[in-house]
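The material for today's practical consists of a large collection of protein records. An example says more than a description, so a record of this kind follows:
***
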Amino acid sequence: METNNKRRNSSGKEKKIKRKQVLEKKKAINEIIKAACAVKDHLTAFPPFCQYDRNGLSVYLETGFGEHLSSLMKKYIQNLLKANMEGPYGSEWLTEEKVKRREMVAPEARYIFVRLSPNSSLDENPVNKNEKGPCTQWMGDGDRVVGFVHYRFIVEEDIPVIYVYELQLETCAQGKGLGKFLMQLIELIARKNRMGAVMLTVQKANVSAMHFYTNKLRYVISTISPSRVDPLIGAEKSYEILCKTFDGEAKAKLEENIYRRDQ
């Protein structure tokens, strides 16, 4: 009887210790997210990335917040999203557009806006001459906006991550290395703020975007993507979730799936 009581007491202590460890870890992760969100301008830590002057394109970057977007900026974002994403989403676009409008102005939404440098010239000819030229035009104050990144600091599988909701560039700003430059900046911001990974969602129909992320930037399909959670369900979904991890725990949970196999 005494032995059984000792075992129960030992088991109870182990559970308490484990619960405490779980709570402490959760608290630590929340503190990391809170600290990252408290930074007003993540660009200030990376002065060389505040401007881009290559391949005939001269632009500079500025920070923005979802809850502080002007009505003209909201309209611009909506127009650029429609121009770039209506095709890949197909029949799902009408529903998805409403979702994106809500996401766009959320308090946790962070932005990097791309503006043309003063007196810069921009080649308005599309990269692919068979494609249409830019479908959007900045109508607000200041230098012309030609693209943006919408990102957030969130938690996935108990890992703090930057999730890139949107990376959108006008046609005239594409094919000049700017997209890769912006994603490198996002990865630097992630590492600086102790994130375990950068994650994003790509439509399967957006073949060029999938190639860009997986081939050029070496992102991989995450364990939380539908196709890896359940291939049958994944086959019915129109998207994949991609990730690039920066430490062992993030790699194990978001890439290798060893935690789920052991469960």
